[in-house]
Design a protein that fits this description.
It is built from 18 helices and no strands. It is mostly helical. Keywords: mRNA processing, mRNA splicing, Nucleus, Repeat, Spliceosome.
Length: 313
């Protein structure tokens, strides 16, 4: 078989930046099992640094380093060399342009496997200083949770939220952690800080989590107060409908309270001229009265229905 086969010495020589060819070639070399030859081939492969600062060109290249580190740790069982591979790789990355959270986290986990907690934390701290990425924060917090270092998790969450205060999921996870630790007051304080942020990426998700949190604690009055506060910010039909559902299941006189919510919602949406939303609300109210009301209360809702909806009945 003449010519250049993919992953042959000729192919990688002709196209040294074709990383897929290097992967194929390395697979061939590794199957022969000579550690020195494998190591030398990895060294030759990683010498071909991408000629551009475009992250897309680095994605394949970075896996050469990852595989090299894994080879040194698992096959060659050389801890010091593995450490050097990770360190050289991290020095090489142009962090000002982009980084790979994956490499930082792999290196930290490697140090922890080798009982070197200080080095792992130092490295991740450095990573957050240079390139504070969501994935890095999440990975670092996850690691401290596994280590049961909850005070460190709190500090990391605070830093994470300084970096991205609009991120609702981060606030929710922080509150969840406090609940896991049995501190409802801290969790509530976190939710309070969260809902008062000037800008949030998913406010409806956050408010729902806060209300569910109070419901879970059987704090009916607190949950009700949250619905009222939310309605000062938005009169969305879904909030009204959720509020009515809540009242139905929250108290003995739930049906009476739910009916009052439907009444208020109908007036509010009619006043705002929200036709489509009001129809949605009236249909939900009608279903509620069909199940929980009497002929009179159902008739009361039917009379509020816009004509075209009535005909459809």
């Amino acid at each position: 078989m003449g010519g250049k086969s993919k992953g042959s010495p000729k192919e990688v020589k002709a196209n040294p930046n074709n990383y897929d060819a290097w992967f194929d070639y390395l697979r061939l070399v590794e199957s022969e099992g000579d550690l020195e030859v494998i190591r030398e081939t990895y060294e030759r492969a990683i010498a071909n640094v991408p000629p551009t600062k475009e992250k897309s060109f680095w994605r394949r290249y970075i896996y050469l380093w990852i595989n090299y580190a894994l080879f040194e740790e698992l096959e060659a069982e050389d801890v010091e060399r593995t450490r050097q591979v990770y360190k050289y790789c991290l020095e090489l990355l142009p962090h000002k342009h982009f980084t790979f959270s994956k490499i930082w986290l792999l290196y930290a986990h490697f140090e922890i496997r080798n009982k070197n907690l200080t080095a792992a934390r130092k490295s991740l701290g450095m990573a957050l200083g240079m390139c504070p990425k969501d994935k890095l924060f999440r990975g670092y917090i996850e690691l401290e949770i596994q280590l049961r270092e909850f005070d460190r998790c709190r500090i990391l969450y605070q830093k994470f939220l300084e970096f991205g205060p609009e991120n609702c999921v981060t606030w929710m996870k922080f509150a969840e952690l406090e609940m896991l630790l049995g501190d409802a007051d801290r969790a509530r304080a976190i939710y309070e800080l969260a809902v008062n942020q000037p800008r949030l990426d998913m406010p409806e998700l956050l408010w729902k989590a806060y209300i569910d949190f109070e419901v879970g604690l059987s704090e009916t009055d607190k949950a009700r107060a949250l619905y009222e506060r939310l309605l000062e910010r938005t009169l969305h039909v879904k909030v009204w409908m959720s509020y009515a559902q809540f009242e139905m299941s929250a108290a003995e006189e739930g049906n009476v309270l739910a009916r009052q919510v439907y009444e208020r919602a109908n007036q509010s949406l009619r006043g705002a001229g929200e036709k489509e939303e009001r129809i949605l609300l009236l249909e939900a109210w009608r279903d509620f009265e069909t199940q929980n009301g009497d002929e009179e209360s159902l008739e009361n809702v039917m009379q509020k229905m816009p004509q075209r909806v009535k005909k459809r009945q």
